[in-house]
């Protein structure tokens, strides 16, 4: 089991849509790109279907792959509420982006919302990109998103063995109606380019009494711009664009890396 898998299982899968709402404009961006590419497309790390469902609703056939059975279960609950035509355009597959296999080729494969960062070694990144390359049509596109690491913030956080515990966010749980407060602290492994965010989820009733406390880790590898460019080229891709956000503005240091790359060969 990978260290971050706990964040996408059990109650955390239930919480997911309430605290992971995506990046500004990302759903619209992916719907536009999928509509331009045409059917079929694939989303890796599709989670609960935040991006996948709007793409299917736009008329595009899409296969979603995720390694969390609980996240896929939540996605299926959402699919049950959709009209029949939209449901028929969606296929969900349990699998890991490093080892998935679907007996089809795709015009576009996307890895939204920084999910590529869950690959914690360069070897795993290469393996996943090779698997994507294998599943793309000869001129198919890969689109993926990473956060661009800021060295000043990394250095500032290194002033402590770990960052102080801070309130990360809070939200109302859709099932219980209780308030959930999320606390987080981070540690960095500068040699491996890995950050670990330890999270505490406290669920409070209407009187403010804590009724449950849960713990989970978010573990991500950060990748620098030219490192990612080199990795894509080594893996058989020709880079077509690097955007700094989902409004297709130019890349800028410390923002987002939104890569558009075409399969070679």
- Tally of helical segments: 8
Q: Structural class of the secondary elements?
A: alpha/beta
Q: Averaged pLDDT, please? A: 93
CATH 2nd-level architecture of the largest domain: 3-Layer(aba) Sandwich
From the alpha carbons, calculate the radius of gyration and give it in angstroms.
Answer: 19 Å
Portion in strands: 25-35%
Task: Give the overall form.
Answer: globular
CATH topology of the largest domain, by name, is Rossmann fold
What distance lies between the first and last C-alpha atoms, to the nearest angstrom? 34 Å
The CATH homologous superfamily of the largest domain is named: Vaccinia Virus protein VP39
What's the β-strand tally? 11
CATH class of the largest domain: Alpha Beta
> How helix-rich are the residues, as a percent range?
25-40%
Task: Please describe the biggest sheet, giving its number of strands, its sense, and whether it closes into a barrel.
Answer: 7 strands, mixed
Element-by-element helix/strand order: HHEHEHHEEHEHEEEEHEE
| Strand order in the sheet with the most strands | 3-2-1-4-5-11-10
Low-confidence stretches: none
Number of structural units classed as domains: 2
């Amino acid at each position: 089991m990978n260290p971050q898998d706990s964040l996408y299982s059990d109650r955390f899968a239930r919480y997911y849509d309430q605290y992971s709402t995506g990046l500004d404009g990302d759903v619209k961006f992916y719907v536009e790109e999928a509509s331009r590419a045409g059917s079929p497309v694939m989303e890796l790390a599709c989670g609960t279907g935040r991006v996948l469902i709007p793409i299917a609703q736009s008329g595009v056939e899409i296969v979603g792959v995720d390694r969390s059975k609980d996240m896929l279960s939540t996605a299926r609950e959402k699919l049950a509420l959709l009209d029949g035509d939209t449901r028929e355009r969606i296929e969900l597959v349990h699998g890991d982006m490093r080892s998935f296999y679907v007996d089809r080729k795709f015009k576009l494969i996307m890895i939204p919302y920084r999910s590529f960062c869950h690959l914690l070694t360069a070897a795993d990144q290469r393996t996943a990109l090779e698997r994507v390359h294998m599943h793309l049509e000869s001129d198919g596109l890969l689109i993926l998103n990473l956060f661009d690491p800021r060295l000043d913030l990394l250095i500032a956080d290194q002033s402590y063995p770990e960052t102080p515990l801070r309130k990360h966010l809070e939200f109302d749980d859709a099932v219980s109606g209780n308030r959930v407060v999320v606390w987080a602290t981070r540690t960095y492994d500068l040699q491996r380019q890995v950050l670990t965010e330890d999270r505490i989820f406290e669920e409070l009733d209407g009187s403010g009494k804590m009724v449950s406390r849960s713990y989970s880790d978010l573990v991500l590898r950060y990748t620098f711009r030219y490192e990612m460019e080199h990795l894509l080229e080594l893996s058989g891709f020709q880079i077509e664009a690097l955007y700094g956000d989902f409004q297709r503005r130019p890349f800028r240091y410390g923002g987002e890396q939104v890569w558009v790359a075409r399969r070679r060969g």
